[in-house]
Amino acid sequence: RKAAKTTKFDETAIHSDRMEEMMSQLKSNSRKDIAVLLMSSDFKHHARAMQTCQENIASQMEGIVSNLDLLCHWMVIRICDNNTTSLLSILAFLDVLVDSLSTRGYQMSDYEANSLLPCLVEKSGHNMDKVRHKYKELLQKFALVYPASKLFLLMADGATKSKNNRTKIECLEGITLLLETVPLEQLSFGKVMPSLGKLLGERDAALRKAALDALVKLYEAQGSNDYIKLIGTLPDAQQELLDEKLKWADRQSQKNARVSKKLDGEAPVPPSPGSMRESATIDNQTPSKLASIQTPASTSVRRSRLSQPEGLVDSALSDALQNSATPSIPGQDGPFSMEDWDAAIKMLQSLDASTNVEGMKILTYYIEQAGRSGNHRHVGAIVERCDELVRYLASAIPRYFAMVQRQPLQPLHGAPGDQLRAALKPTRYLLNTLLNIFNLERVAYGLREATLRDLVEQLLLALLNQALVGVEEGTQVLRALNIVILKILENSDRTTSFTMLLSLLRKVPALPAVSDGSGQTEVHKFGDLVVRCLVKLTKTLAATIAKVDVSRLLLAIHGYFMALNADELRHRTQVDDKPLRMVKTLLYEITKAKGESILSFLNPLIPYETDKPTSAQPLIVQYIMLNLDTLKRHGLLGATQQSVKGEPQVA
Fold this sequence. Notes:
By secondary structure, the chain is mainly α. The chain has 33 helices and no strands. The protein has helices spanning about 15-30, 30-40, 45-55, 60-65, 70-80, 85-105, 110-125, 130-140, 150-160, 165-180, 195-200, 205-220, 225-230, 235-265, 275-285, 285-290, 300-305, 315-320, 340-350, 355-375, 375-405, 420-440, 440-445, 450-465, 470-490, 495-505, 520-540, 540-545, 550-560, 565-575, 580-595, 620-635, 635-645.
């Protein structure tokens, strides 16, 4: 199983005799049902193999680690098949695998990494935006289980030696991201910078821009003296282009420093009565309310903290969340400047976290001012643009938390190091911006379901970040995450909240038939958090049913049932599956609230025919009929209808 070390990916070698031997060993070392899927020529079987490995990764981790090099070789072969379905399943499995390896403290050997990473680097220039984004996130995450210095060199090779310009661009952007999150002493720039400098002579404008951005980031990291020595001599045209960019970077850095100093030095703005009530509401959340959303892991540690009388958020994090010290920023349009807003949005698109922070300061100021003034025109302008803002913030969450995860952690109650404090800064400002957005109910209502779903998914995944557990400032961030999620559920459109949570629930597989809880993966823990969010909304459903589009909600429940085949439904019922039980409970509460009239709310897309027996109806109709019978038998349906009829009517 040992072979000559290589870091350059050669696609022509993947079907060599050595690779056939690797495949034979993988077959003999795999579980029989998995081996059949792995050795199949059908891409659907490959995707199913990856899904099965992902679902059972907690219980099969020892076997996966012992055969990691073989599995890496198999994935390389399938990636080179260029089948999108198979590729996406492999990338999803790798994402979970790296998290699991990191949790165990496992570091990949050079042999294992060189079996896989050169392929991922070369293929990162995929022609689909969605797939390129997944490659980029995955390669950054590998810094958790493989030395960042070696990962840096692999991406530098991809940037300078690949024949695919898209791959070069992705590698250059990956280098820029890596420089933001990895301590500089871990990286070696000497042999890389002259090669990157040559890219300034490329014809592709996007490639030249990516190379310039990477070189500017290296300049900021190295300092001017070392930088000049390392970059070497460039042709006059390229040197002039680089000098202009570095001068601009210096001016931008000075400008950001002045703005930051002004923002941090202004006197606090007195909060309005409304914001004071809001702060009181947040600080007085009871432990039982927050426990309904907290991550399942280490709940006991946080619960003891949440019961402390001084409130949820300590003074340091409260400053970041409430942001009461935000100053006035003048704009051409008076108190609200679309020019400043658009400029701040562009700052969020930067790969530089410090630039993102400056943009969030400006955006938070305008959102707060719109809420305090109650100016309908300003709030309306934010509603029109806020969906874009939330999408950018949601996409930044994994990057910011990856920055935190790469830092050396401090013991509980210990003072955080400078690196950890710096890594947490973008996360604090992001949560502050989100809290201000969702404090404005009209703005929260204006978000699209897809945007809200992506945001909540990233926030719930962040709650599972083990790097934050047991660290004082990490615990504060977890509390802040709870507060933001509660605010989202409170002020967003109620129907949209239900439907996007049901959509997230469809991603959660069932637990194995025999489980003591030890086989619960990160995906299942994520499912528990989604269920807790649904529990919170369902508890108030009777009081908020008038705000709910029942027809749309029933269609979402129907979609959940339709995604389960008969065998999976039977299995989930046998193992008392939490997601399925939650959906049934939600449908029961809707039936209880609407009574027999619920059938009139069935969407035309649900094929309900009155002349067919119940057993031939869609699953949602069968459960509705069962709920109606149960409510009648217990006398609850008649009582509900009578109370509704007895309510005073408005003339």
